[in-house]
## 1
Amino acid sequence: MVTFEVEDHDGNRQPIEAPDDMGLSLMEVLKASEYPVLATCGGMALCATCHVEVLQGKDGLGDATDPELDQLEGLPEMYDTSRLACQIRISDQLEGAVFKLRGEDQ
Amino acid sequence: MITTDICIVGAGPVGLFTVFEAGLLKMRCHLIDALPQVGGQLSEIYPQKPIYDIPGYPEVKAQELVDNLMKQIEPFDPSFTLGERVDYLAKQDDGSFVITTSDKTKVHAQVIVIAGGLGCFEPRKPVLENLESFEGKGITYMVKDPEQFRDKKVILAGGGDSALDWTIFLSDVAEKVTLVHRNETFRGAPDSAAKVFDMANNGKIDLILSSNLTKISGNGHLQSVSMKNKAKEEITVDTDYLIPLFGLSPKLGPIAEWGLNIDKNAIEVDTTDYSTNVERIYAVGDINTYENKLKLILCGFHEAALMCHSAFKYVYPDQKLSFKYTTVNGVNAF
């Protein structure tokens, strides 16, 4: 299991514990935790509605892929720490990370 | 005014299949969608995405499914209003409804079916003070008629294919075109990006890179747009129009004001027939919610079939509906 924190649109932070051996994406864990993540395309980096900002732990995530960057750069707001939750795999590298929800509220 | 039996709000896969199920029962349909083409999120967001859980198709691409649905409903000759958002709903004395769209198209129907998926796709808007007060007064999020911009000063914002394509196109129409992009490079089509850089080098357009929009100003109509670069230097450019092109995002929109029971942006329905709390209004597909709801296209198809059998009583109040298989009756057009 890995533990990281999620900050919602109102600034509230909560720890989330997720299995790191099931190949889940951060988007799937956020949806399962009932965060208002749209994830319109179902996790294929095609819609950018699962936009998150990595407030802590960016180094453990690896680089964004071209399709992910394509989507992020199409948004009105993109940050140096922006990622798509659907493209982040849950692994032990996420231990202690902090994500802020940036996608449109559901 | 357009007159029909069933007005379907949303022309995604479930909305399209509703036409087929309604057609089997001799009910005519008119579809409205905010997007300029049918197919909903399948065509707009992931046309090449393979789908594996449509019965009879081991694998089908999203756009192929939409194309096949269009072919399937051809015999029932539905009519369409595309590129317009549904705005108002007015109940008539006889229980029927008149829907009015954002472009003032009116549709009279005995039954309304909301098959709006995640909602209507609306443009993503930049965070700018007073943005909405300039909408329609210099700020527009799509180019419907390029002639609107002839001999005008236009600023486009964005770095995707739409921003590149419209910059190239409008450079031959507008008096002056400026493209603002937050980065130094474009991730759109390389050919288009190269052409935009060439046009900037030749002075045909102004290209402002590594900059974000910060402020809009005007007196009744947009007059200038300010932007700031990474060094925090701000410049202001006089303009007649600003076209932010940051893609589309689904929103429930005016449907939320129709008096329907809504839970977390989804419409609550009775699972016996997918009717809402308002008589003669149904909701099918991703836009409805009920216990154990699964947002699957095939579930939406099932909901459409049941819903049409329920709607029959409003369209043909004097007739009794008897269920028949298509294998017995075939698909009989009107």
Note: DSSP finds seven helices and 21 strands in chain B.
## 2
Amino acid sequence: MRHGKRLFVATFLLPPLAVYGVFVLSPYAQAVQISTTDWGGLSPDYSYVGLDNFLRLARDPYLWNALGHNAVLLLVLPVVTIALGLLFASMLTVGGRRRAAGVQPVRGAAAYRLVYFFPQVLSVAVIGVLWKEMYAPNTGLINGALRAVGLDALTRPWLGDPDVAFWCVLAVLVWSNVGFYVVLFSAAMHAIPRDIYEAALLDGAGRASTLRRITVPLLWDTVQVAWVYLAILALDGFAVVQIVTGGGPGFSSDVIGLRLYSTAFGEARFGYASAIGVAMLFLTLSVAVLALRLTRRERVEF
Amino acid sequence: MTRTDLDHSPAATAPASEPARRPADPDRPPRGDSRAATAFSHLFLLGWAVLTTFPLLWALGSSFKNDEEILTDPWGLPGALRWENWARAWSHARIGRYFLNSVIVVAGSLTLTMLLGSMAAYVLARYTFRGHRLVYLLFAGGMMFPVFLALVPLFFVVRDLGLLGTLPGLMLVYTAYSLPFTVFFLTAFFRTLPTSVSEAALVDGCGHFGLFFRVMLPMARTGLISVAIFNFLGQWNQYVLPIVLMQGEGAQDRWVLAQGLTALAVSEGYAGDYSGLFAGMAIAMLPVLLAYAVFQRQVQSGLTAGHLK
């Protein structure tokens, strides 16, 4: 039996490990190595340049510009998305009429959850193309809506204006993520015992203080996870930016992921692109650790 | 439960503005605040529902318009149901081709992901061997790393294997990048299953392989469905991997939907075939939305499973 067990473990573990090793582990390892070369991609020749790529990276104004946009995303995206998610989720689960049964979900809560989740099942390509058309100057829905209500003065070429383009992208990211967190927070709120809310109600707590003093503290673990995921998302943003604005106009909505992509597959500077990747890795890891640190709180058991 | 005590109690209508700690005054007449707050919640909720659905409905409506209607009146309803837009997008703009490619790739990669993922997870959950902890950490650690870091070397790994721009290549890569979460989730799931059943099966002369396929997999059905839904959406909606890997000569015939649609958005911008673009978008989003509407509960729990304890 012992022999059979060993054979079994090997046959079950080796195929997944082989696929994983070839396509995931080895590229990660190679990326670190390539980042210390000047490899241009056209010829197989390259030489090691040590940390040159990283020194150049620190002085690259385009990279800092892109990084600045990621920093804004990092500050705004989690806060807005989590705030809206918590607000809608608490309205859905405990926002109903406070009568006979004490605390009730709002009427039609299931339908709201169905609809809010729509963007989450759509491909980022569909979302990107859809919003690109929404923002279109003449044919877009947004300018069309503004004209329809007589606010012609507010119409603008949304994606053609360097002051506005980045915020348009940010809005798309918020739009596509809120629904997921509404559903996530609703699921977590259902786990909170009803009597806690009823006791609060009995003590005369209003909606706002119920949300702030009861719901949020009891959901903190979930909020923390949401924070980390959204922070990681904010450091990426590549797909939406590439499809909606292409980083423009004039790099005004560029992000670090798009820098990496065009450095590698546009300019074939693979060494430098890999250095950007390594920098992104450290950035992501430190942001994740920081997000966990900053949101650490005493855990409430219930 | 305190529910019955609360019934008909005046405190149930306590106004929202009251300070949190103050005990409710039974003599106070109920005010209309609660009702106003409920109406307010409804207004907000409805507002976001409109904001979510309207762009989708607009795209659907525009897919039936002709270009003149789109150009002159973005708000208006289509004058007729012009299915020819859909036909044009499906064949001329090759959305049908991309759609089928997506179906083939995801069918292959999802099967492979579930098979390899559950095999690794099962062994990690139920067997002890040397290097156990290392293998588990290798898989789980993959969830932490941004896929961007791997893009450049991955391109060359796939090219050197002669798999660049091919459907099997894309299947293998999708599978590999789905393994970390799949293994992580299923390992935890297999650990929750009772050990008595598997011991009984072994005593009855069932081999390790038979035990896995005939006993453990059926028992793990709910966990497998959750991860399968999670992986299906992730792989169907994947964008970065195909645009990096489906390059090179003739690769355009094997593009997947996400990539074909964005390329269409760029080219139709020049060609001015807006209705074709909207029809392509409708074709890309309707099947997923319909499938989601049918399996709503499973999809929501499948996608949020990874975020909850």
Note: The CA atoms of residues 122 and 187 of chain B lie 6 Å apart.
